[in-house]
Amino acid sequence: MRFLHTSDWHVGRTFHGADLLAEQDAVLGHLADLVTAEAVDVVLVAGDVYDRAVPAAEAVRVATRAMARIRRAGAELVITSGNHDSAARLGAFGEFAAAGGLHLRTEIDRIDDPVLLADAHGPVAIYGIPYLEPEPARHALDAPGAKGHTGVLSEAMRRVRADLANRAPGTRSVVLAHAFVNGGKGTESERPISSGGVEQVSGAVFDGADYVALGHLHGPQTLAEGLRYSGSPVAYSFSEAAQRKSVWLVDLDAGGLAGVRRHELPVPRRLARLSGRLDELLSGDEHAGLVDCYLSVTLTDPVRPIDAMRRLRERFPFAVHLDWQPEHGTAAVLRYAEAVRGRSDGEIADSFLADCRGAPPNERERGLLRRALQAAGKGD
Predict the structure, then answer these.
(1) DSSP bridge pairs for 64
(2) Which run of H or of E encompasses 279?
(3) Residue 73 Cα distances to 31, 120, 138, angstroms
(4) What is the pLDDT of residue 127?
(5) Which helix H or strand E contains 180, and what residues bound it?
(6) DSSP letter at 239?
(7) Would the pLDDT of 198 be above 90?
(8) Can you give the pLDDT at residue 344?
(9) Does pLDDT of 196 surpass 50?
């Protein structure tokens, strides 16, 4: 049996204000093509289908279109909920959806109720563990002694192993889970899942499964041969600019895990960083190849340029993030008491403007500041 392991679609997320639905639709559509090309039997989505608990209608359309394409390509889907999803909303109509090959595992009391499939070697049990918020999960699992993420996931896997032990000999198993496992490397785009305690869990918690499809971390990574993160299919922060987004193709044979292959996904729009003085960035021929990239720009002008983002977007329409770090600038710590001691309101206003943009006000600006202070009853 062949699986495609993906996760963290985050359909509906924006990128520094830029709409990503077209990019998400394109990459998720590629998954359906891959199902056909690689004869995939089952697609596993390990949580965070959506970026919000209540996704916008456009996001729902993109996600459901992706699922329909995958199903038409011939694969069944097993999907669990992540910490961004509303488990109840994602799992609505799950009983009906299963008849069409879409298996939604979003309920805690169904952790030990696997999706059962079979190939030439016998049965395969696929267990979906939805994201478990520790405090409500320990009550739902009737495990008052379960502490933190490790406690509730340990109880969930205890139930999985107990169910598997009662299955026919030779039954192979796959587990989907949404968690931060020790050894994994995060990025800037994951929402922290700690709540009054340590969020990371040991990979040993998942012992006993032939393959564990992890979700939550956005970079593809291997923690053990059968314990992997697929990462998100689209980059959601500039910390992911160097990543090659991918999915895992997982094969099970009669003895369990037979092999795992990585398949890199298409990149609808690259991410890049750019640094320099504004006029140089706008005129330099060496930057022509970045016109179609999402850009994070750091300006190094000694004085903060006026209307910099608008000017940048005239050449780089997908510039989405702007920072200013002046050349030879100092990271002095500004203490309020020291900044205002012995100074008039006008001097404080002048100093504030100089700190913000790297140059003091000119005479016209100083006149405007003085009139504003006088109007507020703060004139010198």
Answers:
(1) none
(2) helix 278-283
(3) 9, 21, 39
(4) 98
(5) strand 180-181
(6) G
(7) no
(8) 79
(9) no
